[in-house]
Amino acid sequence: MGELLVSDKKNILDPNMVSFKEREKQIKEDEKREQEQLKREKNSPFNSFIQMNKKTYKLEDKLMGENPLAYRIWRFLANNMDSYNAVIVSQEVLTEIFEVSKTTIWRALKLLREDNYIKVYRTGGSNIYALNDDMVWNSWGTNKKYSKFSANVIISENEQEEKVQKELKDLKVEKHKEVKF
Question: 40-65: string of b/e by CB count within 10 Å (b at 16+)?
């Protein structure tokens, strides 16, 4: 489509000229179509699906046999990853969920990293776990090039309280004398 001209009056001889009212109507119709499309996508039954490569089933079986806890952690991460295959969760939360020691969690995560089930990225004091997108995927295939830039964050109640308590300790209270006239 060429250049669109908008004016007070429509020139019926120029197909690229529309009135302000017509253009306003076109824009509203476009917005309505976009909203309907977003609503369809949001209500899609495929939002809760995870795509899996057929080769992954063999790797899952291998992992279940080698280290059932590592498998459970991998499935937990897959179930909680965002549409870019990433999730942020502390090892403390994983110890609470799986009721094992931090060392046991660490060993399981090490196995997952070494066998390329996950990649681990650091951001400040947190780990971002990104599942191998050649094995499992939670979005359209066209999003794969962005597979490690967004994350769901999971924190436990204990972590929240510790942070609040630390912030309260660090908070300096200054007393001011109120003067009334």
Answer: eeeeeeeeeeeeeeeebeebbeebee
